[in-house]
Amino acid sequence: MIELLEQQLTRALQQSLGAPVVDSLPLGSLQWEMPKDPAFGDLSCAVSFKLAPQRKQAPQQIAEQLVEALTAALGGLGLASRCDRVEAKGGYLNVFFSQRALEAVVRDILHAGPGYGRRRLSPARAINIEFVSANPTGPLSVAHGRQAAVGDVLARLLRSQGARVTAEFYLNDEGRQIELLGQSLKARYAQALGRDEAIPEGGYHGGYVAESAGRLRTLEGDALLERPLAWFCEQAMKEQLQHIQDDLGHFGLHFDRWTSQRWLRTSGRIEAALQTLQERGMLYEAEDATWLASTKFGDDKDRVVRKRDGELTYLAPDIAYHQWKFEQGYDTMLNLWGPDHHGYIPRLKAAVAALGLPAERLAVRIVQLVTLSRQGKPVPMSKRAGEFVTFREVMEEVGVDATRFFYLMRTMDSHLDFDLDLAKSRSKDNPVYYVQYAHARICSILGKARVAWWARWRPPLQRLAEPQTQALIRVLAQYPVVLRLCAGAFEPHGLTVYLRRLAECFHVFYDTHRVISEDQPLSAARLALVRATRQVLANGLGLLGVGAPRRM
RNA sequence: GCCCCAGUAGCUCAGUGUGGAAGAGCAGCGGUUUCCUAAACCGCGUGUCCGCCGUUCGAAUCGGCGCUGGGGCACCA
Fold first, then answer.
1. What is the pLDDT of residue A385?
2. pTM as predicted
């Protein structure tokens, strides 16, 4: 409703201004926004400020002229019933929805049900999101957990807006880190047999490796030291991968595709990608190594793709991976990385450009770090000493719902302080419970109402007229806009902000007005409103992967 | 030295996309319970939007120079 109205208001403005004037204005001048203060109406436009210089008039004066033109145009477009009035205030054009427009919002939601807020695009955009992609060398960290939450919800959001989304985990299943993991496991195994064998430099000291060695003894016996290192690597990697998959499954995250680096290599894609670069003249030999001329595409310096010892650098498989994805016809490739990788963005973009591929369609977002705290005090973490709280432990301590919600409460650009005590608390301080409680409250109300009540009535929605009631409906109307903006910006946190606002409006409404009363027509109208509210809460929580409980 | 992120109320942070009307939660103080869940609600906010300069009719938002905190700058992944 709101978006349709926005478009039509913009069209009305265009009509009243005329094409030459519209073309002379900066892009976006005719846009409508939703003001925070209800005194400024439901939609506002600041076009008068843009017109002021060329007309040499005060914005307020221009706005007053536009009010008349706009009102006339609205009548012509048959929108008069949707807008009570258009007024000029402080130079702004403020449009106020009519009661009938608000009623239409409630009807729309009940009609669309779970589909409210979703949209279809044709043709659908194909988007690949690559995220988490943790090395299978140990437990997932709380930072991986944040990437999991952001990526998963982003995938759901983009799907809700009509995109075809592939959620992908890039699996680093070979190379130096896996080798170190295998060596560490072998060393722990040998130590368990009483041998003096040290963990290699840069190896994995975490207790989980020793546990893994213990299991190996129990299952396979004490005669494994003759096995080649590769066998230990394979064992260790498979076990850690299984843990990662278990954790992500527990989190409710499903990846559509797991792409293995080993597969990229054995299928010849890495050599093929290097061949492409070679043919395009982007590679050269120097200092006994092979270099990519990435400075041609904005990188600080050229990068080695094949080392002096003949081994490939990590850049080579990444180039192959992106070439392969682009061949599959994705319109957009979105990668979520940790902040330690941000310096890697220019060289990867350069590499993609060097392949002759559209680098602007590769989007990389950095998900900033997470720190944990209890009662306002930071939880100390030392990765070197192997003392850190894992993603799994957080999920188990505070529950999946709270974990997901907390991970999404900040923009991914911001460092996140995750308060474990707050996430566990069952009070209004805890935003998860605050939102879920609104949903459970509505379920409780609907449980008390006899079904026949709202089935019999065609609810007189015109009676939903009190300020708190209208405030609630206005927020309900914004839901589709919120989804579109979040999906468009690749930034899901706005949805948690929105749901808190929606829950707040509902709680205020609930405390001010009784839903079920002796006044049956009014009750029917309010029941329709709370059903619509429940629907939007459920839809929004569903996109977050957070439960919408019927009781708490 | 270079790059990225952050800096807004006592604390934690929205708002920066597309310049346009300074916000929320917590903490603190004071209220609300014959009622569909008090896991709730209501009231109380003068703040150097880190600083300076610039662009503009207009800057928390854009540009430049700095400051503070965090992260990153490999022939590691």
1. 52
2. 0.92
Of A383 and A259, the structure prediction assigns the larger pLDDT to A259
Q: Structural domain boundaries of chain A?
A: 2-97, 428-544
pLDDT digits (tens, 9 = 90+) for A393-444: 999 988 999 999 999 988 898 888 888 888 887 766 788 888 998 999 999 8
CB-proximal positions of chain B, under 7 Å: 2-7, 11-15, 17-21, 23-27, 35-37, 39-42, 56-58, 70-77
Residues A187 and A289: their CA atoms lie apart, in Å, by: 33
Minimum CA–C1' distance nucleotide for A29: B18
Which CATH code of 3.40.50.80, 3.40.50.2300, 1.10.260.40, 3.30.1360.70 fits the domain covering A2-97? 3.30.1360.70
For A105, A212, A224, A485, the CA distances from A3, given in Å and listed in that order, are: 11, 56, 66, 12
Closest CA-bearing residue to C1' of B22: A36
Could you report the per-residue pLDDT of A114-146, keeping only the tens digit for each? Answer: 999 998 876 788 999 999 999 999 999 898 999
CA of A401, C1' of B2: distance in angstroms: 41
Q: CA of A465 and C1' of B40: distance in angstroms?
A: 22
DSSP for A327-348, written as a single string: HTT-SEEEEEE-GGGGGGHHHH
Count of CB atoms within 10 A of residue A457's CB? 16
CA angle A312, A316, A321 (to 5 degrees): 140
Over its C-alpha atoms, chain A yields an Rg (Å, rounded) of 29
Pairwise CA distance, residues A233 & A137, whole Å: 10
Q: Does CATH number 1.10.730.10 belong to domain A428-544? A: yes
User: A88: how many CB neighbours lie within 10 A of its CB?
Assistant: 20
Find which nucleotide's C1' atom is closest to A31's CA.
B18
CA of A301 to C1' of B3 (A): 13
**A372 touches A379 (CB < 8 A):** yes
Going along A486-545, which residue ranges are E strands? none
